[in-house]
Design a protein that fits this description.
The complex is a heterodimer of chains A (351) and B (380). Chain A has helices at residues 7-16, 20-27, 39-47, 73-86, 102-107, 122-125, 169-180, 193-201, 212-220, 249-268, 275-278, 284-289, 296-300, 306-314, 317-324, and strands at residues 50-55, 63-64, 70-71, 92-97, 113-119, 130-132, 137-139, 141-146, 160-164, 185-189, 207-211, 228-230, 238-245. Chain A is an alpha/beta fold. Chain A has a domain at 139-238: Periplasmic binding protein-like II (D-Maltodextrin-Binding Protein, domain 2, 3-Layer(aba) Sandwich), CATH 3.40.190. In chain A, a hairpin with a 5-residue loop joins strand 2 (63-64) and strand 3 (70-71). Chain B has 380 residues and is mainly alpha-helical. Chain B has a domain at 81-108 and 165-379: Orthogonal Bundle (MetI-like fold). In chain B, helix 8 runs antiparallel to helix 9, helix 8 (173-198) packs across helix 11 and helix 12 (273-281) packs antiparallel against helix 13 (286-301). The model of chain B has no long low-confidence stretch (mean pLDDT 85). Classes of the chains: A alpha/beta (351), B mainly alpha (380). At the A-B interface, helix 1, helix 2, strand 2, strand 4 and helix 5 of A face helix 4, helix 5, helix 10 and helix 15 of B. Chain A: This is General L-amino acid transport system substrate-binding protein. Chain A: Belongs to the bacterial solute-binding protein 3 family. Chain A: Residues 1-28 form the signal peptide. Chain A: One of its GO terms (biological process) is amino acid transport. Chain A: It comes from Neoroseomonas alkaliterrae.
């Protein structure tokens, strides 16, 4: 199927009315890749490393440690792709991207994929020209209040002062929610994370709102976390996941099935500790997941044992979650497997 | 006649006495300047009290109550409870102890940190050598070329058994120094050409220079960086990428060039017309006139505004944070993203601020000396 190449690019260029001569080659239609080939995968293989766009620093998701090694949940997804392709978690280059330049970095080919807590929305999927390859973290905006306030639900925040950071959709969500629930509130808008948290702690605001994962992280480092309550109401949907350029289905398939493979591994009880023993497990599901039968890896264009390699190094989905997100106080919640009540993580059959 | 002179003693001068204690020395100075009247005494005492309180508070916070290190759990999590229990009464320097290498060198491979460290030393050495007037001749060119080549080899590696380190892993102080040094080294000659061009009689050159200066000065540096980082890659054919750092570097050079050009032009304008005419009368060509008569005098006059621009520009390099390059300040901010270290921003900013201060203060002191030295003939 032929698609116009990078519509967003045209919009930007149209608006920018800059040196049209320079832009002519970029505007030329790119031939759609023939079925079965993947320009991104070819480029990665030729280069020998995956280039992965990550956040410049978000606790638990992507963040360099004291030795400068990238760690986090999103980072582990990049490493998983590198392991699938090269059987080496080090053959990946991390490019820190900001909220502003992340999409350009992907569109221009500066990075092969983004694994950067990006919310899946219709416009990003279509007019920006991306493919989201799954939801590896269900987030949503919530509220944190001091336990001494005695507030049980967000509805009781009528008349409250609420601390919020500007710029992202957080502020917009808050206004939308307040309007549809006829709640009056006074916003205290503070740009920097550290200052907004300080304002909440010092009592300048009754409540602090941001994504639940962020609230949990802030709460977990307080001297007495029990003094703060995260209200059960979640006022927005923030499904986060990796994304690739539109039009490279094979690469998108690989990312999608790595995520499903990690979920399936957790479902079947395959962990980094027992994956070698599990090779001899004769349940057909396990045999297929670990590449003993079915040849599923080859269908994706990688080694049949790719899930063995990934799980033995990084663990399954639950282990990745426990390693990166549990220490900063994030509960599984909606990110539990579908077999748990309230869990949303569901993988199609790995066969 | 003689009887008077014979036995009357010459009046001897009185024994030397010290001036009254209250009129000389430190005591007199104190009395004249700090305690000259009741109002002055009151202000002195009040301010003295405040200063002592502030200094004691600072010493308490920075040294006496400060915590210099915290235990690290086996899983790599820092145990910062001790720091949090201080409730701000003491500094938690443990964050600097734990994270200083990340702040200084970013995500550069840990076991290779000696390379960026050596690069920083080389940069400082380069500044010191360039500051010495003994080297103000053609030898400076090979020195710069050589040092910058060595710096490039150290940072990238890939030869002489040094492992290759791609650019996106560079970070911290070397990035700040690279952006500032290359930025100024290229922008300064550019600015001289543009300043001369703006005063040229050739209309095409003049218009070009005016356009360049006004366009660049008319937009904020942030938007230039955005153009370099967000728009420029879209113009390139897919798959072709120019290094992110290089794009930012070029944006910096263009930006600094425009500002410096105006400073240099101010120096050219400030020179009396007689100097130009005298040079013409001697039959010097345009380049001889400019190189031998005009520029040496013009640049000497504008040392203070030049250094002002240099210092501002050195600090502006921290704006690369918006395009995801880990310069010194961004690395510092990233260091406190980890939940265990959240809330210790002051300590990190003090650490980073001190590094900036050292470089900017050195620049400022050196330029003050240079200015005094070069403008001796103007002193009255």
């Amino acid at each position: 199927m032929r698609k116009p190449a990078r519509p967003f690019l045209r919009r930007v260029l149209g608006a920018a009315a800059l040196a049209t001569v320079v832009t002519m080659p970029a505007l030329a239609q790119q031939p759609a890749p023939a079925a079965g080939t993947s320009p991104t995968l070819d480029a990665i293989r030729a280069r020998g490393t995956l280039i992965c766009g990550v956040n410049t620093g978000l606790a638990g998701f992507a963040q360099p440690d004291s030795q400068g090694v990238w760690r986090g949940f999103d980072v582990d997804y990049c490493r998983a792709v590198a392991i699938a392709l090269f059987n080496d978690p080090e053959r990946v280059r991390f490019v820190p991207t900001t909220a502003q330049n992340r999409f350009t970095a992907l569109q221009s080919g500066e990075v092969d994929m983004l694994s950067r807590n990006t919310t899946w929305t219709l416009s990003r999927d279509t007019s920006l020209g991306f493919d989201f390859t799954g939801i590896n973290f269900y987030d949503g905006q919530g509220f944190m209040v001091k336990a001494s306030l005695g507030v049980r639900t967000a509805r009781e925040l009528d008349g409250a002062t609420i601390c919020v950071q500007p710029g992202t959709t957080t502020e917009q969500n808050l206004t939308d929610w307040a309007r549809s629930n006829r709640i009056n509130f006074r916003p205290v808008v503070i740009e920097r994370l550290e200052e907004v948290v300080q304002a909440y702690l010092s009592g300048r605001c009754d409540a602090y709102t941001t994504d639940v994962s962020g609230l949990a992280a802030t709460r977990s480092v307080q001297p007495r976390p029990a003094d703060h309550v995260i209200l059960p109401d979640v006022i927005s949907k923030e499904p986060l996941g990796p994304l690739v350029r539109h039009g490279d289905q094979r690469f998108a398939d690989l990312l999608r099935w790595i995520h499903f493979g990690l979920l399936t591994a957790e479902e079947l009880g395959v962990t980094s500790q027992n994956v070698q023993q599990m090779l001899n497990d004769n349940r057909p599901d396990v045999q297929r997941l670990l590449g003993r039968t079915g040849g599923l890896g080859q269908m994706l264009g990688v080694d049949n044992a790719f899930m063995v390699n990934i799980v033995s190094r990084l663990g399954n989905y639950g282990q990745m979650f426990e390693r990166n997100l549990t220490p900063i106080g994030i509960q599984r919640g909606p990110n539990a497997l579908w077999t748990t009540p309230g869990g949303l993580q569901y993988a199609p059959p790995f066969r | 006649m003689s009887d008077i002179t014979a036995n009357t003693s010459v009046p001897r001068s009185a024994p030397r006495r010290e001036a009254p204690v209250a009129t000389t020395g430190a005591l007199a100075w104190l009395r004249a300047n700090l305690f000259s009247g009741w109002l002055s005494t009151a202000v002195t005492l009040a301010l003295g009290y405040l200063i002592v309180r502030a200094v004691m508070g600072l010493v308490d916070w920075a040294f006496i109550n400060a915590i210099w290190s915290v235990p690290i759990a086996p899983n790599g999590q820092a145990q910062t409870q001790a720091c949090r229990e201080l409730q701000g009464s003491g500094a938690c320097w443990a964050v600097v102890t734990e994270k200083h290498r990340f702040m200084l060198f970013g995500t550069y491979p840990y076991e290779q940190h000696w390379r960026p460290a050596l690069v920083c030393v080389l940069f400082v050495g380069l500044y010191v050598v360039s500051a010495m007037r003994r080297f103000w001749n053609w030898t400076l060119v090979p020195i710069w070329m050589g040092t910058l080549t060595v710096i490039g080899i150290l940072m990238w590696g890939g030869v002489f058994g040094l492992p290759y380190v791609p650019q996106e892993r560079w970070g911290g102080l070397p990035i700040t120094l690279i952006l500032a040094t290359f930025g100024l080294a290229f922008a300064f000659p550019l600015s001289i050409l543009v300043a001369l061009g703006r005063r040229s009689n050739l209309p095409a050159i003049k218009v070009l220079c005016v356009l360049y200066v006004e366009l660049i000065r008319g937009v904020p540096l942030i938007s230039l960086l955005f153009m370099a980082s967000v728009m420029f890659p879209l113009f390139l054919p897919e798959g072709m990428n120019i290094d992110k750092l290089l794009r930012a570097q070029i944006a910096f050079i263009l930006f600094a060039g425009a500002y410096l050009a105006e400073v240099v032009r101010a120096g050219l304008q400030g020179l009396p017309k007689g100097q130009y005419e005298a040079a013409d009368a001697m039959g010097l060509s345009y380049w001889q006139k400019t190189g031998l008569i005009i520029l040496p005098q013009a640049l000497r006059m504008v040392i203070p505004p030049l250094v002002n621009t240099f210092i501002g520009f050195f600090k502006d390099t921290s704006l690369v944070l918006i395009i995801g390059i880990f310069d010194l300040l961004t690395a510092g901010k990233t260091a406190i993203v980890e939940p265990a270290w959240q809330g210790f921003g002051v300590e990190v900013y003090v650490f980073v601020g001190l590094i900036y201060l050292v470089f900017c203060f050195a620049m400022s002191k050196y330029s003050a000396g240079l200015e005094a030295d070069l403008n001796k003939h103007r002193r009255r």
